[in-house]
Amino acid sequence: MRRSLIAGTVVLLAMGVGCTDSATTDSGGSNNGPDDGFGGVSNNGGANNGGANNGGANNGGANNGGANNGGANNGANNGDPEECFSVAFEAVPAVRPVDIIWIIDASPSMGEEIAQVEANLGVFSERIGGAGLDHHVILIGSDRDLATPGKDYFEICVPPPLSAEPVCPDVDSDTYLHVREPVHSQDGLDIAMDSYPDWKHFLRTNQGSDVHVIMVTDDNVGWGTDAAEFEQFLSTAVAPGFPRGVTFHSIVDLIGYQPSCAFDDSCSCGEERGQEYIDLSDASGGLVLDLCQEDWSPIFEELEREVVEGTEIPCGFTLPAPEDNRRIDYDRVNVVFVGDGDNREIIPQVDTEADCALTGGWYYDNPQAPTVIHLCEQACDRLTQRVEVEIGCETVKY
Questions:
Q1: What is the CATH number of the domain that holds 221?
Q2: Longest dimension (CA), the chain
Q3: Coil/strand/helix, residue 290
Q4: Count of domains observed in the chain
């Protein structure tokens, strides 16, 4: 018989319960009886309370453990050997980590646009963090005003919460890495590729992260790396590389410089239409946004939607985090579909994704150290109701 302590949306844990045979193990097991699904045991059992002293001849034999309390009466009335108690958690959709790479042209024609990035990037980061995303932000661009032969650059300084301190140059943090390589009008893709050894350690693509690359410039690639060459770099980069590809977004001039154009909204604000970047966006399903608009709030709102909506793992659910540093016994986890009238259906587990072909169960992302529960396609197709994760009862398997 299976009992759910909490059948709705819950986050409370009930510790110290598990599958027991109350005729022999009310106080015992080896130490405190079978695990309650959270991997911790105390010192109330074994021989002391469940063996010879309390569970043997003294209390568990003819006096209390025979026919009166521990035998037929207590065993049949109170102790179905398969009875267990579980704690239910509303299943929370799992999301991938996200790595966001900004490549920002800091040439002299980009002063107003850099101010927009500085003003909005911190808010953007806060909002995607508030959406529950584990995110890293990499910014490739100058960190101070520079004057070099033939090329000048503006400073790019991002405030907290990305920067660890409210100073300029900004300071790297747990979620922010500034790759302090100046980017000019036409060399953004070249600089990103050449500096890859300096920022690849900040990627989590070996953990399945989604990667978004955002190019901000009022020019095109010129004689530099073009779209095809950058795609080749993405496909061949290693350690960790981009095994799931990237989504490329362009914040660029959509018109291109027109000498005879009057200064109004129909004119270009830059040097050249960013066609190569637009091609990368079209090929990867990314956004193409207008650098020339005065209010960049819609730009960051669109980027936020694109980043957040793409991270949810279809039919994947995060394992609940136990309180008090307790660990989950992964052999005491069940997935339950809760339908109309709180009807509950336990979905059996399969060992691996490959076993889904024969059944419609669920499996762990990593059986040795799981963090995500994945539904097989057949079970996912049936998902029209609430999903709960129960901890405490032995896993039902196919």
A1: 3.40.50
A2: 107
A3: strand
A4: 1
